[in-house]
Amino acid sequence: MSTLEERNKQIVAEFMEVFSSGDVDGILSCLADDAKWWVAGSIPGISGTKDKAGFKEMVSGIAESTTTGAIRLTPLGFTAEGDRVAVETESYTELKNGRVYNNLYHFLFEVRDGKIAAVKEYLDTEHATAVFVAP
């Protein structure tokens, strides 16, 4: 594997650590100014494509609903090719409403100039909806 691919995997791993801390400004500092974040499915307020400002709004809202202010992301496996890094990931957090969010993901990150430029987030949308949206 090339040095570029190893560096990109490290950038994504560091992003997941920062994301797990709940530091919204730190999370945003990892993203390119023109970054796009896409989430699978039709989860109200979560799914679809967001620019950096929309991503900040989504992450801030989710963080406020958790007991710790963050969702812990644990990478389970990385695959990198060029600027693309695929990561199988598990999440965990407890919500103020008493629910537990523990989901599995497949993320596809695109890294450009040391920043995350684009993300595609595939997840169990039924679980996310049941935990974050359902009454």
Automatic annotation (TrEMBL):
A matching Pfam family: SnoaL_2
Gene3D superfamilies hit by this protein: 3.10.450.50
InterPro entries for the chain: NTF2-like_dom_sf, SnoaL-like
Domain SnoaL-like: residue ranges: 12-118
Name of this chain's protein: SnoaL-like domain-containing protein
Taxonomic source organism: Pseudonocardia asaccharolytica DSM 44247 = NBRC 16224
